[in-house]
Amino acid sequence: MTSYVALIYTPDVDWSQPEYADGMAEYQRFGKDAASVIRGGAALYHTPTATTVRVTGGKGGDVVLSDGPYAETKEALTGFYLLECADLDEAIKVAAMIPGAWNGAVEIRPALPMTVNVPTLETSDTVTQ
Amino acid sequence: MSAGEFVTDRAASEELTAILRGERRQVVASLTRLTGDLTLAEDAVQDASIIALHTWPRTGIPPNPRAWLIVTAKHRAIDTLRREGARWAREREAVAVALQRAPDDFSVGVLRDDQLRLIFTCCHPALAPEAQVALSLRVLCGLSVAEVARVLLVPEATMAKRLTRARQKIAAAGIRYRVPDSEDLPERMRTVATTVFLLFTEGYASRSAGAHERRSLADEAVRLGRLLVQLLPGEAVLEGLLAIMLLQHSRRDARMDVSGDIVLLADQDRARWDLAMAGEGIELAASAIRGSQLTPERFAVVAAIAACHAIAPSAASTDWDAIVSWYDVLVRLDASPVVLLNRAAALAESGQERAALDAVDALQGLDDYFWWHATRAELLRRLGQETEAAVAATLARRLTDSPAQQRLLDRRYSGRQPNR
Question: Where does A2-128 sit in CATH, by number?
Answer without folding.
Answer: 3.30.70.1060
